């Protein structure tokens, strides 16, 4: 997305423009040229200059650029200013760890670097989480697309088992339960299994996974759907263990026995914003000396379970292990603008709901920009790279049926007119905002299962290798 498409912030007077006069080289001219028109493109340029200064341990220049950004950014300004606030805070956080000498950045001006919403926010209630998910179609899009293809894949099966790998606390499943209750032949037996562990990322809930299961059980009973909720206990390593070892331990525990799989069940594997948290650096696994990433190991595990369908939903941005800081800033700034701009269309600038939603995005930005190595857990992968990965691991893509596409369009009609959807040639549905990709939804089957499904879903060319 071109930075200039984000619109312009109003010109903001700085307290001391001569502060940049001591900067040598062409960087001084580049920064000074930004002072009169601080639009999205110029803010991005300032962020990149600051990142470059930090990477070369040029503390003086980094402080100067941060000073400029601190006068530009505002947690209650327009979308560009609000976004800049979180990027500035992420850069200050990074500077506190990577600079050889302390960064004496004065935040007494009350600017974005030292103020704003706290990342350690109050936990949500289940009711608040429902409102959070409904605010924009960021999550509901993936729920709707995935549920539609799941319903198509499990038709005729009396018993269904869903392995749910997600971060949204089972908010996807009431709609599916309701749809199963309306089936002409009566509902099948539904079993949902979730892990006892999830990444410590927003949204955060004040209810335990046991309470969530109890709520789902009561709702299924109300809808007369036979239901079972299972929590798969996974061992938690010592605090001193690295994240890589944590995920390796997690993967070793995900097997048919631990998951209590049954031969008479149609197995569904649902991944909503999950794969990004699996490390993608090649490393030696516990069972092999070959180099393989946890992400690929997870997909191997899923394939070996022979699921009826696999759904993968995530944000369409490249922020993987091999991306450098400046590349991440460019990709992240142009991508994270989307929810900030979408919220601007219907919520006032001082809306607590908006501020909290943006603070959760800020939590993600700080991890993407402020951390490296195993501490950087936000590692998004675009749908193009995801498709390549799935194809390389022996999966076939499954198209979304017209009924599912129609339901997704109906969902989007309930939101601002800027939201849209497009269907990619690789059988991918993509949520867009003002034409720019935001979230993708995909469906997959292992190659062996695909041979069977190819005779059951729509036409014979429904499945094709990614």
TrEMBL record:
Pfam families linked: GRAS
Region (Disordered): 1-23
Top-level taxon of origin: Eukaryota
Start and end residues of each stretch annotated as Leucine repeat II (LRII): 211-243
Motif VHIID: positions: 160-164
Keywords recorded for this protein, A-Z: Transcription, Transcription regulation
Segments of this protein annotated with the region SAW: 370-445
Matching InterPro entries: TF_GRAS (IPR005202)
Family: Belongs to the GRAS family.
Protein name (database record): Scarecrow-like protein 32
Gene: LOC105161791
């Amino acid at each position: 997305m071109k930075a200039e498409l984000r619109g312009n912030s109003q010109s903001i007077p700085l307290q001391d423009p001569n502060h940049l006069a001591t900067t040598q080289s062409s960087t001084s001219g580049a920064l000074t040229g930004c002072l009169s028109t601080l639009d999205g493109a110029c803010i991005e340029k300032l962020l990149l200059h600051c990142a470059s200064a930090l990477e070369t341990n040029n503390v003086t220049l980094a402080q100067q650029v941060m000073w400029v950004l601190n006068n530009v950014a505002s947690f209650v300004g327009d979308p560009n200013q609000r976004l800049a606030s979180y990027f500035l805070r992420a850069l200050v956080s990074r500077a506190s760890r990577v600079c050889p000498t302390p960064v004496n950045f004065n935040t007494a001006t009350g600017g974005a670097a030292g103020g704003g919403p706290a990342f350690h926010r109050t936990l949500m209630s289940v009711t608040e989480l429902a409102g959070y998910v409904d605010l924009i179609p960021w999550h509901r899009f993936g729920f709707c697309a995935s549920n539609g293809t799941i319903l198509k894949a499990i038709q005729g099966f009396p018993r269904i088992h869903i392995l749910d790998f997600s971060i949204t606390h089972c908010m996807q499943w009431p709609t599916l339960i309701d749809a199963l209750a309306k089936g002409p032949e009566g509902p099948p037996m539904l079993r949902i299994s979730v892990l006892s562990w999830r990444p410590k990322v927003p949204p955060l809930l004040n209810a335990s996974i046991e309470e969530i299961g109890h709520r789902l059980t009561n709702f299924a009973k109300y809808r007369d759907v036979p239901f079972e909720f299972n929590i798969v206990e996974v061992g938690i390593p010592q605090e001193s263990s690295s994240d890589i070892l944590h995920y390796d331990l997690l993967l070793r525990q995900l097997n048919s026995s631990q998951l209590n799989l049954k031969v008479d069940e149609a197995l569904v594997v649902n991944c909503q914003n999950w794969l990004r948290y699996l490390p993608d650096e090649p490393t030696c696994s516990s069972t092999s000396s070959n180099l393989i990433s946890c992400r690929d190991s997870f997909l191997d595990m899923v394939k070996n379970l022979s699921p009826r369908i696999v759904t993968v939903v995530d944000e369409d941005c490249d922020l993987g292990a091999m991306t450098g800081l400046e590349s991440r800033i460019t990709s992240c700034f142009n991508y994270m603008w989307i929810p900030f701009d979408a919220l601007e269309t219907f919520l006032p600038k001082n809306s607590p709901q908006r501020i909290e939603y943006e603070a959760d995005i800020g939590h993600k930005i700080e991890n993407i920009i402020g951390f490296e190595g195993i501490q950087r857990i936000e590692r998004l992968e675009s749908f193009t790279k995801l498709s390549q990965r799935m194809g390389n691991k022996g999966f076939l893509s499954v198209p979304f049926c017209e009924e599912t596409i129609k339901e997704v369009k109906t969902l989007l009609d309930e939101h601002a007119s800027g939201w849209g959807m497009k269907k990619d040639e690789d059988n991918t549905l993509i949520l867009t905002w003002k034409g720019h990709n935001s979230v993708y939804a995909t469906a997959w089957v292992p190659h062996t299962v695909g041979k069977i499904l190819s005779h059951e879903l729509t036409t014979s060319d429904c499945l094709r290798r990614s």
